[in-house]
Amino acid sequence: MDFKVFDLGLIDFATGWQFQKDIVAQVRNNRIADALIICRHYPVITLGRLAGLDNILISRPELNERKISVYEIERGGDVTYHGPGQITVYPIFDLNYLVKDIRFFLRQLEAVAIDLLTDFGISGIRYPGSTGVWVEKNKIASIGIAIKSWITYHGLSINIKNEDLANFGLIKPCGMNIKMTSLESVLGRHIEIEDLKASVICKFRERFNSQTLIDT
Predict the structure, then answer these.
(1) Domain residues of the chain, as ranges?
(2) How far apart are CA 119 and CA 208, in angstroms?
(3) Which of 37, 59, 165, 183 lies 20 to 30 Å from 199 when distance is taken between CA atoms?
(4) What CATH number matches the domain at 4-215, 3.30.930.10, 3.50.50.60, 3.40.50.300, 3.40.640.10?
(5) What was the pLDDT predicted at 213?
(6) pLDDT averages per 10-residue partition of the chain, 216 residues
(7) How far, in Å, CA of 42 to CA of 64, rounded?
(8) How many other CB atoms are found less than 10 A from the CB of residue 196?
(9) How high is the pLDDT of residue 209?
(10) 102-119 and 197-207 helices cross at what angle (nearest 10)?
(11) Rounded CA gap, 46 and 79, in Å?
(12) Could you tell me the maximum CA-CA distance found in the chain, to the nearest angstrom?
């Protein structure tokens, strides 16, 4: 498959959320085939359909003081955090023309993150029953999607920089008592996010080409 890439840079979550909805409408109306939105967000906590408010560990006034927004959204899963130290990717894919299997799609998103980590000599792993990717016992990539008429939105975030990790302590990520990590933490060196974007896009193209979908 091929898809149009939209690199939105560093944006607030609400802007990216609305942009996703606009692209979903374009895909549904056959104005474009598929799309991949890649961006970074200003600090934000999002609550998926299964989220409990008690998984945010500080008050709204405290979050306001820290300039961290909160949104209740339509993706699956519980609570997560997004910040400028992550690469966040929203695949707007029409599964009617791929594989109409939500679990399969989630495994492919995990595979994208695992493939990226492999380039750095890092073994990314899955844990049965828990969507996402870990390095040993620490989570490095989070996934939460929504699907409308078999068109996907929301998606995958990969922790790259160290700067955002402390904010995960303000929540119970995915409603669990887990520790988050980042690519910089694992490697022990500086990583430039802009240098990774082309690789992430390439991993999506590799994972979602027709031969991979048949063989995986």
Answers:
(1) 4-215
(2) 18
(3) 165
(4) 3.30.930.10
(5) 57
(6) 94 98 97 96 96 93 96 95 98 96 97 98 95 97 97 98 95 92 98 96 90 48
(7) 13
(8) 19
(9) 83
(10) 140
(11) 6
(12) 51
Which member of 112, 174, 183, 186 is catalytic? Answer: 174
Give whole-number Cα distances, 187 to 9, 99, 134, 202, in Å: 24, 35, 14, 22
CA-derived radius of gyration, the chain: 16
Residue 137 to residue 139: CA distance in whole angstroms: 7
Find tokens 């549904």 and name the residue: 28
The bridge status of strand 69-72 relative to strand 44-47 is parallel
89: nearest Cα among 63, 112, 58: 112
* Cβ pair 71, 47 in contact under 8 A: yes
- In whole angstroms, how far apart are CA 133 and each of 89, 98, 116? 15, 23, 11
Q: How far apart are the first and last CA of the chain?
A: 15
Find, among 77, 99, 42, 96, the residue nearest to 155 by Cα: 77
What integer pLDDT is reported at residue 211 of this predicted model? 43
Tokens standing for residue 39? 């961006």
Please tell me the number of Cα atoms within 13 Å of 23 on its side-chain side.
26
Active site includes 174? yes
Label the pairing between strands 151-159 and 86-92.
antiparallel
| pLDDT score at 64 | 96
pTM exceeds 0.85: yes
* DSSP secondary structure code for residue 49 in this structure: T
